[in-house]
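Hello,

Following up on my earlier ticket. Below are the two sequence lines again, exactly as submitted.
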Amino acid sequence: MTAYRRFAAGLVLSATTALALVATPAPAQEKTEFRVAWSIYVGWMPWGYLDESGIMDKWAEKYDIAVEIVQINDYVESINQYTAGAFDGVSATNMDTLSIPAGSGVDTTALIVGDYSNGNDAIIIKGEGGLEDLAGMPVNLVELSVSHYLLARGLDSVGLAERDLDGVINTSDADMIAAYQTDDVQALVTWNPLVSAILDEPGANRIYDSADIPGEIIDIMFVNTETLAANPAFGMALTGAWYELMGLMAAGDEAALTAMAEASGTDLAGYQSQLASTEMFYDPAAAVAFTESEALKETMVNVAEFLFDKGILGEGAPSADFVGVEYPDGSTTGDPGYVMMRYDTTYMQMAADGAL
Amino acid sequence: MQMRLINRRPGRPLTVFLALLPFVLALIGYTIASEIRLAANPADKLLPAPGTIIDTAVRLFTEGDRRSGRILLWHDTGVSLMRLAIGVSIAAIIGLVTGLLIGLLPHVRAALGIFVAVLSMIPPLAILPILFIVFGLGEVSKVVLIVIGITPFLIRDMSQRVIDIPTELIVKGQTLGASSMVIALRVALPQIMPRLIQAVRLSLGPAWLFLIAAEAIASDLGLGYRIFLVRRYLAMDVILTYVLWITALAFLIDWALRTLSRRLYPWAGEGL
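Thanks for your patience. The regenerated structure is below:
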């Protein structure tokens, strides 16, 4: 009977939570408890370590707040949850943030520009060949993801387009390695650690990767703009904790790196090889310089055009300029009247100045 | 004297009202939640207004894709229904034949009974990578996932139904000189056909589940594919349209099977 009651109580509780979740999208008031979501990816492993090492708690205490770091097993789901208001921040790429939260009208700020993919995303074919050989081939990838963007950029560089392929086949990243081993698959696009696992297979040949488009696939900690505006302490605590760990990583702190390697299912050497194809901004000043560069604007325009071309900005989107993006110098691309995505270097600059 | 609750029956108008009530309440609940979210953020995509869903539905059902010009929803539906039909038919045939054999032949029962019971406990989604490598990533693996998913249940149900056939019928068949074959085809088979339809109706839920899971993993067309694709940009208006459409299709298939069963086997009695 007790067990039954407890079950019933749990059910009522979860129903209430679900209702509360549905009814309260991203409150913008001042508050002291924050939740950020992250998912497994080489450049985001620090979030897991910040949580387990207590570095996050230390910085949160300094600013009299509490920050809960939650790992979500499914990347897209973590962004969707953030967009629905269940989290105050999420680790995501520049592209997915423009399409999901910003496209859904959730004003989102890039708080910490962590790294860009410098080879972590790759197009792989079986056997010899180059980008031109993709013509007439089916390509397996997670459709509408950065892989799809990489493919579009790659094809573009040799004067091909997606219609020249024998179609793209949406394939879950969780099954990409198994998919590679079937005869149906001739070419695929994916990201690390899958890339290194697949390249270990006989005959796998990397023909194009994100090092060919450096700085275009950017991994960022995004936070809700209104929440950040009402709670600067949240931004300061996250940024402070992040760059404390970046310092450790840059110094080659073995304990931290090993913990992150194990959490991502590899060993220290494996993790370091993934880091080698990731341009981490260990130094906040480098992140600020990157975020303030003109190249970022060009990248965001490219990304917006890709998203619009694939219909990802939604049927309501009249053009690729539907969503506005604001840059640190105050300039915008896209619709300046509907800015939903912002690059803000304030907090990274504080870290660079040692003001946190 | 007070009438017991279990003996009170609603009249015709009240029956209709009671049947509609949960639907109306669900719709009202959804509309309220949607309005709360849209008031906070007019561009919210999580719970689109019912009007938006209707607009999207009209567009999906009638307008072609911007690039290919094909009306994707119908193509998705055709492909998915084909996979479902093939998968469920194969599973039903295997279930029927194996069920008859296990139910009628003690030797087969001794050999396969426990094996099928164990087999039915394997979660098919957990062995997906093996299925991919054995059956490839094409149509076959999607159909196979449905077959693996629902066949053990069908076999077990069919065997049990055959065992449940009154012994008197089997004995009577034998005294009239029927062989094992004739008993299987003329006594057992007609008895379990309506049960097979019933079992297929019950396994359609899991069959849809496996179909959508298979399409989510590797595909370029299909209802499950589309749902998981547009989830990447949280197009809940599209997802909800597809969900309602799948629900309607599943309900229609279920209704068709029930009608078929009543037409063909009116003696099998009233079912839900």
